[in-house]
Write a structure and sequence with these properties.
The complex is a heterodimer of chains A (about 350) and B (about 300). In chain A, about 40% of the residues lie in helices and about 15% in strands. By secondary structure, chain A is an alpha+beta fold. Chain A folds into 2 domains: about 30-145 and about 270-325, D-Maltodextrin-Binding Protein, domain 2; about 145-265 and about 330-355, D-Maltodextrin-Binding Protein, domain 2 (3-Layer(aba) Sandwich), CATH 3.40.190. In chain A, strands 5, 6, 7, 8, 9, 10, 11, 12 and 13 form a 9-stranded mixed sheet that branches. In chain A, a hairpin with a 2-residue loop joins β1 (about 20) and β2. The radius of gyration of chain A is 21 Å and the shape is globular. Chain B has about 300 residues and is mainly α. Chain B is about 75% helix and about 0% strand. Chain B has 13 helices and no strands. Chain B has helices at about 1-10, 20-50, 60-65, 70-100, 110-120, 125-135, 140-150, 165-185, 190-200, 205-235, 235-240, 250-260, 265-295. The chains are: A alpha+beta (about 350), B mainly alpha (about 300). Chains A and B meet through α4, α5 and α14 of A and α4, α6 and α12 of B.
């Protein structure tokens, strides 16, 4: 029992975050610190930032984290890089009050909307460049980057021009998802994309489940999670994933191509939020300022993700044209799932997925 | 805690003159009791509390969630997987241990094999799963080499990523574990007993049926139970190999804890864990009943 007391005791001190009379934990914009220089000074005083579930090869986060540390001299502690959005929220709850608790979150929309009571409102300096439909008006969450669901594949082995191509015999044991769709957002969107391409709709994911059932019966589906390692060694030469994540496999497999089916252009955005109980509240706010600055947005773009301020930056001429030109081509009209549609899809998957791909 | 301590006090209090020994004997069990309550009783209590927790007070909703077909399937898979890998591991491991026990006890072979078993019995998780993927996965080098020689081990689908594949991968750490835990029992069998059986006119069959078999059987059952529990609770290997559909219970628990698509239900995870505890309790009771029967004639 004594062990518990020790753990909680060592964390409580650093949460105060008061510098120069500003309570960083309740600051809703940089002006509360008297401008960016005040925020930077307060953040430097805290000296560290706890981030969670940010894989270095996900949307260029490796460079983003090292860029932040290089610019402000603030150490970034990256916990559980392969965790899910729910793991992030669980960590905020479980570690609240300790110095290890996450300061900032990068989470899927379903989890963000279900947990707004854990977030602190904050508006970055570029708040007006984020489209109104992509942020909470009260500043509790704001979308950060997104992309389109895609099929990544090794073009030295296959050519893919439609989702139905995957039913052909040469794809035996080749097609994988990035996770279990009852657990991972990226995988759920993969099944939804298959649904759209097979006569389903955003309100009806059943056609996608039926498609994967058929894939599984044909022996084309591999129930293993596609990772950098499985793509590199050829175990998963065809992967349903966000285009910006898939594009990163080009480093390991030079013939890797990313295909966004024109009949199923399914978009999705992640969101940022600051934890209400952040042990480093000023550093958390500086991190958001950094992410939504031109530098941060272009770093996401370099990673193949479409930053939320893309439209505003295109108008302003601050978007990096080289990175923008490297994005996979997208034809057709993009559609986005609403939170209600996403929940309905998840509920359907919960009772039907295991059976559909069961052996 | 005081209730648990009283039997200890009773046994230690035999020399009545040494009444001063009592507090010390009791103190000796404190680390153990502390350890057990912190790492066994407390987590179990948390699991039980979670399993019966509802949005408003106690509820049976989490328990009734266990009757959903996909969860029942995962329990069936878990039990089949654990029983099959434990049975294969126990039989093959026992034969291997017997070979070692009858060889030179100080020999290099035995030392090398037991050392290797010590390492391999703990070689699980993502590393083991990936080792299998890289060798006999769909693009594994053994698979490709066999294909070049006209043998397709996956003509009927990639069974490595199904339950049968999991059984194969689990035996990889179950067999070495069996060797380690069963070897001491075999070492306790003395060659003189076999000679005595022969002197009394017994055949090799008589020796195994009436002497070595009954002596080893309780220990064999105990090892089998250990292997079952070992496979039953394993998570990381399966998670890396079969990512889809929560095929076994530990994967369902993981889904219930960390689903990011709005399906996270921590209390259902507790109910799943409670059901796992109950299965292990049932298996343990079966084991101890069986062992009491088979060991009745032993001193």
């Amino acid at each position: 029992m004594a062990a518990f007391a020790v753990i909680t005791a060592c964390g409580s001190a650093s949460a105060a975050g008061n510098s120069g009379g500003v309570d960083a934990a309740t600051a809703t914009s940089a002006s509360a610190f008297g401008g960016m220089s005040g925020l930077i000074a307060a953040a430097k005083k805290e000296g560290q930032l706890n981030v969670i579930a940010l894989p270095p090869d996900w949307a260029n986060y490796g460079s983003i984290i090292s860029g932040f540390t290089a610019k402000y001299g603030i150490k970034v502690n990256s916990a559980n890089p392969n965790g899910s959005s729910q793991d992030e929220v669980n960590a905020v709850r479980a570690q609240s009050g300790t110095s290890r608790a996450p300061d900032v979150l990068d989470i899927g929309m379903a989890v963000a909307l279900a947990n707004t009571s854990l977030f602190a409102p904050y508006e970055v300096s570029e708040w007006n460049d984020v489209p109104a439909s992509q942020k909470a008006a009260n500043g509790l969450w704001y979308q950060d980057y997104g992309g389109y669901m895609s099929i990544g594949y090794d073009s030295s082995k296959f050519t893919i021009t439609s989702v139905q191509d995957l039913l052909k015999p040469q794809f035996k044991g080749a097609v994988a998802l990035n996770g279990d769709p009852t657990k991972a957002n990226a995988a759920l969107n993969g099944v939804m994309m298959a649904s759209l391409a097979n006569g389903g709709s955003l309100d009806n994911i059943a056609a996608g489940v039926a498609f994967f059932h058929k894939l599984n019966q044909l022996g084309n589906f591999v129930p293993i999670q596609a990772t950098t390692a499985t793509v590199k060694n050829g175990t998963t030469p065809v992967v349903f994933d966000w285009d910006y994540l898939s594009a990163a496999h080009g480093k390991d497999v030079p013939s890797w191509k990313v295909f966004v089916p024109p009949d199923a252009v399914l978009g999705g955005y992640y969101a940022q939020a600051i934890s209400k109980t952040a042990p480093d509240p000023a550093a958390a706010r500086l991190w958001e300022e950094y992410l939504y600055s031109t530098v941060g947005q272009n770093l996401w773009l370099q990673g193949g993700a479409r930053p939320v301020e893309m439209a505003a930056m295109t108008t302003a001429g601050t978007l990096n044209q080289t990175y923008a030109a490297a994005l996979p081509p997208v034809g057709g009209t993009p559609v986005f799932m609403s939170p209600t549609q996403a929940t309905a899809a998840a509920t359907y998957l919960n009772s039907n997925w295991a059976q559909a791909i069961g052996s | 805690m005081t209730a648990v301590a009283s039997p200890t006090a009773g046994s230690a209090g035999r020399p009545r003159a040494g009444s001063l020994r009592f507090p010390f004997a009791w103190l000796g069990t404190v680390p153990f009791l502390g350890y057990v309550s912190l790492f066994l009783l407390l987590p179990t209590a948390i699991v039980v509390a979670g399993a019966f927790a509802g949005a408003r007070g106690p509820s049976l909703a989490n328990i009734s969630a266990l009757t959903q077909p996909y969860i029942v399937d995962s329990f069936v898979h878990s039990v089949v997987l654990s029983a099959a890998s434990a049975a294969i591991g126990a039989v093959v491991g026992a034969i291997l241990a017997y070979v070692l026990a009858t060889g030179n006890r100080e020999g290099a072979v035995r030392r090398v094999v037991t050392a290797a078993c010590g390492v391999l019995s703990q070689f699980g998780g993502v590393t083991l799963a990936f080792a299998f993927i890289a060798t006999i996965g769909g693009a594994g080098f053994v698979t490709l080499w066999l294909q070049q020689h006209g043998i397709n081990i996956y003509a009927n689908g990639v069974w490595l990523y199904q339950l049968s594949g999991l059984i194969l991968v689990y035996t990889y750490f179950e067999i070495p574990l069996m060797v380690i835990v069963f070897l001491p029992a075999l070492d306790g069998i003395r060659p003189q007993w076999r000679e005595a059986t022969a002197n009394l006119g017994g055949s090799s069959w008589h020796y195994w049926r009436h002497v070595a078999g009954p002596l080893l059987f309780p220990s064999f059952l105990g090892c089998l139970l250990l292997l079952f529990a070992n496979a039953f609770s394993a998570y990381a290997t399966a998670a890396a190999l079969i990512n889809q559909g929560g095929i076994i219970v530990p994967l369902q628990i993981s889904n219930a804890l960390s689903s990011e698509v709005g399906l996270a239900q921590a209390d259902v995870a507790s109910a799943l864990a409670l059901a796992m505890v109950l299965i292990v309790v049932v298996v343990t009771v079966l084991y101890s009943t069986l062992q009491r029967r088979t060991a009745r004639w032993l001193p």
